[in-house]
Amino acid sequence: MPGPARPAPFTDLLRQHAIELTELDPEAPLEDLEPLRDLIGDARVVALGENSHFIDEFAALRERLLRFLVERCGFTLLAFEYGFAEALPLDAWARGEGSEDSLAGHLAGTIPIGVEAPLRRIRRYNRSAAAPVRFAGLGVLTRRVVYAADGWLACECGVAAVVVVGVEEFCQGLGALVV
After folding, report:
1. Is pLDDT above 70 for 70?
2. What is the pLDDT of residues 104-128, one digit of tens each?
3. Distance CA 45, CA 75 (A)
4. CA torsion angle for 141, 145, 150, 156 (degrees, to 10)?
5. 6 or 106, greater pLDDT
6. CA dist., res. 160 & res. 138, Å (int)
7. Which of 34, 102, 111, 159 could lock onto 98 through a cystine, CB 3.0 to 4.6 A?
8. pTM, rounded to two decimals
9. For the chain, how long is the longest CA-to-CA vector?
10. Closest Cα partner for 121 from 160, 100, 94, 140?
11. What are the residue ranges spanned by the domains of the chain?
């Protein structure tokens, strides 16, 4: 006779390391996110993901985490699932170029999934920031663009935000999708 069911290792991991959040509101106090500081440590890149687009709660949490990373941990770059070239005018806008209303023109003709609110937050923050938060698009499909993005981020932001390690090996598996 089989023994009692045992929780999967992933369930055990969650029980040991989960952090209870008290709010999703991006404007809420950030104290409940402080346990993330130990997890982040001295990392220069934090990747956030979601299992589906168009879910308001994910967007709110992402914006709240962005606020925490910028205000409490000193991060200065938001790299988003967005076209590299299409992100350049958004970065300029976030640093103060153009009017508040000109963002709509930059987003016209694109699929701005969840990018407007974080950009507006960055622009507000940058008005008084000693070091501005930059915006970069990482929706790249070609090796040439990956290397160009890495070079631009290293030059403009002072750090190579895209680590191009094993790009050739990765691209081999993608075949015709990668140029």
Report:
1. yes
2. 998 887 766 788 999 999 999 999 9
3. 8
4. -130
5. 106
6. 13
7. 102
8. 0.72
9. 71
10. 94
11. 8-75
Distances (CA, A) of 58 to 13, 25, 33, 43, 157: 22, 11, 15, 22, 27
Which of 18-27, 51-60, 63-72, 86-95 is predicted with the least confidence, judged by mean pLDDT?
A: 51-60
Burial class (CB in 10 A: 0-12, 13-18, 19+), 165: exposed
- Do residues 63 and 121 touch, judged by C-beta distance below 8 A? yes
pLDDT of residue 118: 93
User: Which pLDDT score is estimated for 140?
Assistant: 54
| d(C-alpha 115, C-alpha 98), whole Å | 17
Specify the 3-state DSSP secondary structure of 134: strand
Lookup: tokens for 121: 């937050």
110 φ/ψ sector (left φ>0, alpha ψ -120 to 50, else beta)? beta
**How far apart, in whole angstroms, are the C-alpha atoms of residue 64 and residue 109?**
27
